[in-house]
Design a protein that fits this description.
Elements (H helix, E strand, L loop, with lengths): L5 H14 L10 H8 L3 H13 L3 E4 L5 E4 L8 H9 L12 H18 L6 H15 L1
Antiparallel strand pairs: 1-2
Helix pairs in contact: 1-2, 1-3, 1-4
């Protein structure tokens, strides 16, 4: 069982690639994001339609066009990307008939939202940890 769909995971991966270019004026095309992340390009196209509608990314048309993260990149939270693509973060869709379990799942949902209530910049910490592991093992 997975709480996140491939759609939100792929969306988060793609937005993070754009986030890493936030200080640059460079744009990224979907084929480049697809090559870097391994996400199928046609799936990325569908994801980016929703991300663009939610103003998390912007696109520039033309031969040198592509995508860029919006100007408020430092304010974008991981949970925003997930909720745009998958809807509300929750453990179960409907309440149960047992109030004990309803309280339990509500508590779980609150904790899940807290976990994903981090800015995209927090993913840089994981990238640093990975780089330390790679450098250490070589």
């Amino acid at each position: 069982m997975s709480l996140l769909t491939k759609k939100s995971i792929y969306g988060l991966m793609a937005v993070y690639e754009l986030y890493k270019l936030k200080e640059s004026s460079n744009l990224m095309q979907l084929r480049d994001i697809s090559n870097i992340t391994g996400i199928p390009r046609n799936f990325l196209e569908q994801i980016f339609i929703e991300l663009k509608k939610a103003n998390l990314v912007k696109s520039i048309r033309g031969a040198k066009g592509g995508y860029k993260i919006t100007d408020n990149a430092n304010e974008i939270k991981i949970k925003e990307v997930i909720t745009v693509l998958d809807g509300e973060i929750s453990t179960i869709k409907d309440e149960t008939t047992n109030p004990v379990f309803n309280l339990f799942f509500n508590d779980c949902d609150k904790k899940l939202v807290e976990i994903f209530d981090k800015p995209l910049s927090s993913l840089e910490e994981y990238e640093l940890m990975l780089n330390k592991q790679v450098n250490y093992s070589i």
